[in-house]
From TrEMBL:
Stated name of the protein: Dihydroorotase
HAMAP family: PyrC_classI_B (MF_00220_B)
EC class name: hydrolase
Annotated Dihydroorotase catalytic domain residues: 52-236
Annotated gene: pyrC
Bound cofactor: record note: Binds 2 Zn(2+) ions per subunit.
Entry superkingdom: Bacteria
Record keywords, A-Z: Hydrolase, Metal-binding, Pyrimidine biosynthesis, Zinc
Metabolic or biological pathway: Pyrimidine metabolism; UMP biosynthesis via de novo pathway; (S)-dihydroorotate from bicarbonate: step 3/3
Record InterPro entries: DHOase, DHOase/Allantoinase_Hydrolase, DHOase_cat, Dihydroorotase_CS, Metal-dep_hydrolase_composite, Metal_Hydrolase
CDD domains: DHOase_IIa (cd01317)
Active site: residue positions: D306
Annotated source species: Anaeroselena agilis
């Protein structure tokens, strides 16, 4: 029997309301015992004193770029980046070439992931064929094939009738629809958040109301159909308030926010660094404050990275011409611990809830907790470790990040998937 004991760490498992110092015993890839002083005779021992032992983090929003855009990323490079960043499960979005819009593609990717993955990979299918917004994709077939959710991420499903039908079909399988909520007519040609900074920089803006309108309509359709809606990368105060009110009246809506929207403002764009260009755009401080308040009170359930790698030469152009998005898997934990925990906005159990228990609950995954008998997916954190972001050391192919050169406090120091170390002391194993 393969035994591993994580010795003397602060065990935080929000799903079981555990926060105590003790040992964790892993046997044959499964959590066997949590807490107390465990006899480590015959076991591999990991000294976790001074560290935090948490359920493995789940990123429910990443772009691993398979199939078709392997120059940007693939399952091998993307899951190494996930392991390096402390994630044990990563969900990949379907805006690929071709878009993942049928069961054959979902099946193929599940098999690819089994061969190539270093961490668990879950597949998200498209809502519409080719993500073109014109015709519903094979929603039921994809869910039955193992897709964990459906999304046209990158675009909003503009046609309300199609989204209504999507909720109805997905609902038959208990399926979740993840919305990239931006009203297209208001954001076309916009490069950044519309406000004082965009006016100063002379860049056309993407107004916050574009997100508010899209979230409002999607919430109404979820309410009308009884469907399950998850709002991706919420970034506006208005959207947070719409989701808060919808939850209060029982609409099946959940939401995520990204580390960058929670910690950066549109002032990061001053200097026209293409690494700060993202959709939805970095917003002004009032929106950031509302987003953090929403995260704190549970309106925003999860933190997700929206890891979006691009080839260096694509992003290394004038701001207007650069594609939107940047990598996030290897900076997320450090950014969140620095910007939300060390600043006193969230407690460590709250951070871990948002990164592990909540995404597992939203997606219906058997994960996100250190329950005895669960697969031993574990993230070990050193909240006090100080480090500097250096994209040259990233495992992802995408080297673009708005956090380049930033000094952060806190990081994952070990990642365990199925009882096996996939990252230790910052080095990916395997
Ligand atoms: Zn998106």
């Amino acid at each position: 029997m393969l035994k591993l004991v994580l010795k003397g760490g602060r065990i935080i498992d929000p799903a079981q309301k555990i926060d105590k110092v003790g040992d964790v015993l892993i046997e044959d890839g499964v959590i066997a015992k949590v807490g107390g002083d465990i006899d480590a005779a015959g076991a591999e021992v990991f000294d976790a004193r001074g560290l935090v032992v948490a359920p493995g983090f789940i990123d429910m929003h990443a772009h691993l770029r398979e199939p078709g855009q392997e120059a940007k990323e693939d399952f091998a490079s993307g899951t190494r980046a996930a392991a390096a960043g402390g994630f044990t499960t990563v969900c990949t979005m379907p805006n690929t070439r071709p878009a993942v819009d049928d069961a054959v593609l979902v099946n193929g990717l599940i098999r690819r992931a089994e061969l190539e993955r270093l961490v668990n990979v879950k597949i998200i299918g498209a809502v519409t064929k080719g993500q073109e917004g014109k015709e519903l994709a094979e929603v039921g077939d994809m869910l039955q094939a193992g897709a964990v959710a459906l999304s046209d991420d990158g675009r909003h499903v503009a046609n309300a009738k199609i989204l209504r039908t999507g909720f109805e079909y997905a609902g038959m399988f208990g399926g979740l629809i993840i919305s990239h909520a931006e009203e297209a007519s208001l954001v076309e040609d916009g490069f950044m958040h519309e406000g004082a900074v965009s006016a100063m920089l002379g860049l056309k803006g993407r107004p916050a109301v574009a997100e508010d309108i899209a979230v409002g309509r999607d919430v109404m359709l979820a309410e009308y159909t009884g469907g399950r809606l998850h709002v991706a990368h919420v970034s506006t105060a208005g959207a947070v308030e719409l989701i808060r009110r919808a939850k209060a009246r029982g609409v099946k809506v959940t939401a995520e926010a990204t580390p960058h929207h929670l910690t950066l403002t549109d002032e990061a764009v001053i200097g026209y660094d293409p690494a700060t260009k993202v959709n939805p755009p970095l917003r002004s401080q009032e929106h950031v404050d509302a987003l953090v308040a929403g995260l704190k009170d549970g309106t925003v359930d999860c933190i997700a990275t929206d890891h979006a790698p691009h080839a260096f030469e694509e992003k290394d152009v004038e701001f207007r011409y650069a594609p939107s998005g940047f990598t996030g898997l290897e900076t997320a934990v450090g950014v969140v611990l620095t910007g939300l925990y060390h600043s006193g906005k969230l407690t460590l159990p709250e951070v871990i809830e948002k990164l592990a228990a909540a995404p597992a609950r939203v997606l219906g995954l058997e994960a996100g907790s250190l329950k005895a008998g669960a697969a031993a997916d574990v993230t070990v954190l050193d909240p006090a470790a100080e480090w500097t972001v250096d994209s040259a050391k990233f495992y992802t192919r995408g080297k673009c990040t708005p956090f380049e050169g930033k000094r952060l406090k806190g990081r994952a120091v070990a990642t365990i998937v199925g009882g096996r170390f996939v990252m230790k002391d910052g080095e990916v194993c395997g």
